[in-house]
Amino acid sequence: APALVVDNLRKTYGNGVEALKGISLTVQQGDFFALLGPNGAGKSTLIGILSSLVSSTGGDARIFGISVNQQRNEAMKLIGLVPQEINFNQFEKPFDICVNEAGFYGIPRKIAAVRAEKYLKELRLWDKAYHQARELSGGMKRRLMIARAMMNEPRLLILDEPTAGVDIEIRRSMWHFVSGINAAGTTVILTTHYLEEAEQLCRNIAIIDHGTIVEDTTMKRLLAKL
Ligand code: ADP
Ligand code: ADP
Question: What H or E segment, with its residue span, contains residue 40?
Fold first, then answer.
């Protein structure tokens, strides 16, 4: 199965805003996929539905064949989410932040501890594992969000505008690590409103505007058209 099939997905919020007007797209396994669109386009709404934080009002999305509508708990286990804003408790330690995340997925503590070590090492945070998160640099905090998102060993890693307001040095380092995760087999979806960012990283791209997919193509073809 593809990593993701979005089929005529709709979301109308309680206030009547039609954030998604029946969108469809497919992301293949192993892809590094960009979802590009201006503010208000519907990117976060789509990511919210894929990660079971928002309910859809029509259509469906399947993650490796698992329906977010009908098999919500199963679908959640397949996803790792790196949100826009730093949202861990700054007084907690990276090791605990990771282990607690695993607990949320029902992963036994021993396995969680092994994984926390693995991913904190991979993201070059191991020497800070037992320091309070507030002592980490901005780049380290971003990497901690990635390590945390890997704790359930997701098959699909979603980054929701992860570099908004983040300086170039930190962005480069984030992309270095995310590229490594992708090369190791995890499918990655990145949402952004900067084409330049997606351009260097992503093979395929969809552009969303006003809740509609207006382009769905390869990065090469898109760049050739501009
Ligand atoms: P609901 O989904 O029941 O509307 P929310 O907590 O999502 O509840 O939002 C409550 C209200 O806050 C919405 O109806 C909307 O008016 C407003 N709101 C929240 N987030 C946004 C946003 N990103 N853009 C516009 N309005 C928003
Ligand atoms: P993007 O992530 O591309 O900036 P969003 O998915 O956040 O777009 O928003 C799409 C549209 O839905 C916008 O018009 C936004 O104001 C609206 N919206 C987002 N969240 C809510 C909410 N909770 N309640 C009402 N409207 C919302």
Answer: none
pLDDT at 40: 95
The predicted structure's pLDDT at residue 62: 98
Q: How far away, in angstroms, is 19 Cα from ligand 2 center?
A: 6
Any ligand 1 atom below 6 A from CB of 185 = no
Q: Are 151 and 116 in contact (CB under 8 A)?
A: yes
> Strand (E) positions, 100-176?
156-160
- E-strand ranges in 73-185 read 79-82, 156-160
What are the φ/ψ torsions at residue 54 (nearest 5 degrees)? -130, 140
- Indicate the top mutation candidate among 11, 13, 53, 54 to test ligand 1's pocket, ranked by most ligand atoms within 8 A of CB: 13
Whether ligand 1 lies within 6 angstroms of the CB of 15 is answered as yes
Q: b/e for 44-54, b at 16 or more Cβ within 10 A?
A: bbbbbbbbeeb
pLDDT at 173: 85
pLDDT of residue 184: 95
What is the structure's pLDDT at 166?
81
pLDDT beneath 50: ranges in the chain: none
Q: With contact defined as beta carbons under 8 Å apart, do 10 and 21 qualify?
A: yes
pLDDT of residue 170: 84
Q: How far is the CA of 194 from the centre of ligand 1 (A)?
A: 25
Regarding the beta carbon of 53 and ligand 1, being less than 6 Å apart is answered no
Give the H/E segment covering residue 185.
none
